[in-house]
Please model this.
Amino acid sequence: MTQLLTRALLVAAALGSSVMAGCVTDSERSTPAREPAATRQPAAPGQPAAANQQTSGEAVDDAVVTAKVKARLVDDEVTKAYQINVETFKGTVQLSGSVDSEEARSRATELAKNVGGVKDVKNSLQVRKSDG
Model:
C-alpha cells in the first residue's frame, strides 16, 4: 500500500509540474541549452520545438518517465536508500547524486534503461569513498 501511494504521489507531482511548465510567458521561454532539464520550457503551441525546447507532449512524456524511474529506484533493494536525482529531457534520463557502491551506480542505470520511453541514460552518480 505504501509503495502504491509513493508511486501515485511521484506521478502526480511530476504531472503537476509539467502542467505548470506550460504557464509561462513567451519572454520566459528563451532558455540556454545548458540549463537543467527541469528549467527548460515547452515550445509555444503551433511552433516547432528548437533543439533545447520540447513540445508540451514531450514535457508530459518526460515527466511520466521521470516518475517511473524514481518509483523503480525507490522500490529496488540496492538503490532505495539513496537520494538519486532524476531528470528527463526528450527521453534521455540524467541520474545525479551520490551512492556508496559501484553496484548501486550500475543498478540505477539498469533500472532506468528498463523503463518504457527511455531512449538513453546519462549516469552522473558519484560513488562515495569509504572511510575504511
About this structure: The chain has one domain: 2-127. The first helix runs from residue 2 to 21.
